[in-house]
Amino acid sequence: MKLKVIDINNKPQGEIELDDTTFNDIFGRPVRKDILARVVNWQLAKRRAGTHKTKEIGDVSGTTKKPYSQKGTGRARQGSLRSPQFRGGATIFGPVVRSHAHDLPKKVRTLGLKTALSAKAKEGKLVVLDGVGPDAKTKDVAKKFAALGWKSVLLIEGKAVTEGFARAARNIPHVDVLPQQGANVYDILRRDTLVLTRDAVQHLVERLK
């Protein structure tokens, strides 16, 4: 199979040829929403701070004195005014500080990335770029993206991003630039168009095949 390559000015720059097995394994898989959902949930769970907390009885400030006698008042027995049934008292079974991260098998994570790439290829929203060029002005990059019709873009480069281009692109709304190592399911799905450079395609093929 062949992937057409263009430059930043939308001019053809040849093709990248992949054998059928590699192409079908990475860019031609059936779209499995269950796998994508598992990987996205795993990613977002890892990002959660988990710093939420409510006050338990030991955290509530106040007297430790028993409110009134155990017997003889005709009222229900009480041991503390800091108990949850009183206003300003503790919260029962509230959230505590914890990590929300959970495990996900490496094979599922790899399959998720392949499925996300295949989904973009199937929708016709996968573009292979010859290179980003030396542009370091936000205005110039924005004009070129507008000419290409890219409004929501994830651009993945090779081992490292081109610093000047990345600096210019990060000022444009809905545009992300990542190195190949940073390619992930959530960022691929949250942007409308996925743009890979030649280097990114080679690195991803080596990483995923």
TrEMBL record:
Biological processes per GO annotation: translation
Tell me the InterPro entries matching this sequence.
Answer: Ribosomal_uL4, Ribosomal_uL4-like, Ribosomal_uL4_dom_sf
Q: Which GO terms describe its molecular function?
A: rRNA binding; structural constituent of ribosome
Pfam families in UniProt: Ribosomal_L4 (PF00573)
This protein's GO cellular component annotations are:
ribonucleoprotein complex; ribosome
Subunit composition?
Answer: Part of the 50S ribosomal subunit.
Q: Report what the protein is called.
A: Large ribosomal subunit protein uL4
- Give the taxonomic lineage as stored in the record: Bacteria, Pseudomonadati, Pseudomonadota, Alphaproteobacteria, Rhodospirillales
| Gene giving rise to this polypeptide | rplD
